[in-house]
């Protein structure tokens, strides 16, 4: 388990904003949460120095606020987290808190039972596990901004700000289990199906032996990068070098030359495709004679509806040659190899 012990450490990292006028207050001694003097306020807190949260499991996320006064008023409110990797510090620009884009996941921020009664000059805590898990699932944050917005009621809570004291400024302590790092090497890639971007890479085990598991990176409909893993029916023995792809209707194929267990190239290619149900499937197909020497790296080009992969061929001693191997999918969907 890893722990981040964060604290608001600059004047512009905590602020409040009047909801009606948008006026920003960045240097007050307290941050206004709720309603004060008949005016509703949005409040914001920013912590920097964040790392390692992408894909992590958040075990706890406790914010600590130093109460300035005895407060037990009732109000209804909601907590939000800013929905980007690197949120900026607050600025004295109208509506700088309420105009920020926030994650669709929210947490209740009512006077009761969420805040409870506050006592002057004591540390009061709030659990933000739900918001921080949502952020870690979708982002790799280098800073975190939490925002409170009141909906109704006349109560308030007044935590001390950085400008009151850097020692009592709001803290955020996060305990998390980092996302697992893939062991072994991943080889081969593919690309696009409609609006869905895919990267598929074969995973090795820790000893460098190929497995039947593939790692996927994709961009979802919100532009967020997500990772998934999926098993395929067979283990690709030997190394598969280079990759290409074709798009025929809704089908995406990855083609990679297979080595034998001794690392010698064969005439067999492993094909990965996404079927009409979005499931990963594998097939093997021979393509002419084995390519002597290694073919390193693959690119793709599109001619009409045909996608070709090209790779520079090495000789058996591993020296590059003037020949390129072209992989293409013919009009019948069969894999063909053409030296050029």
Explain what you see.
- The chain has helices at 111-115, 129-138; strands spanning 2-7, 14-18, 24-25, 33-36, 39-48, 57-66, 75-81, 107-108, 123-127, 143-153, 156-157, 171-177, 186-187, 192-193, 196-204, 210-219, 225-231, 240-248, 251-259, 265-274, 280-286, 295-303, 306-314, 320-329, 335-339.
- Strand 24 and strand 25 form a beta hairpin.
- It folds into two domains: 2-177, Jelly Rolls (Sandwich), CATH 2.60.120; 186-339, Tachylectin-2, Chain A (5 Propeller).
- The chain is built from two helices and 25 strands.
- Residues 181-199, 239-253 and 294-310 have low confidence and may be disordered.
- With 340 residues, it is mainly beta.
What is CATH's topology name of the largest domain? Jelly Rolls
Q: Output the radius of gyration.
A: 28 Å
Share of helical residues: under 10%
Q: How many domains comprise the coordinates?
A: 2
Determine and state the CATH class of the largest domain: Mainly Beta
Note the main attributes of this structure:
elongated; 2 helices; mainly beta; Tachylectin-2, Chain A; 340 residues; Jelly Rolls; 25 strands
In short, what is this structure?
The chain is mainly beta.
How would you summarize the topology of this molecule?
Layout: E1 2-7, E2 14-18, E3 24-25, E4 33-36, E5 39-48, E6 57-66, E7 75-81, E8 107-108, H1 111-115, E9 123-127, H2 129-138, E10 143-153, E11 156-157, E12 171-177, E13 186-187, E14 192-193, E15 196-204, E16 210-219, E17 225-231, E18 240-248, E19 251-259, E20 265-274, E21 280-286, E22 295-303, E23 306-314, E24 320-329, E25 335-339
Antiparallel strand pairs: 1-12, 2-3, 2-5, 4-5, 4-11, 5-10, 6-9, 6-12, 7-8, 7-10, 13-15, 14-15, 15-16, 16-17, 18-19, 19-20, 20-21, 22-23, 23-24, 24-25
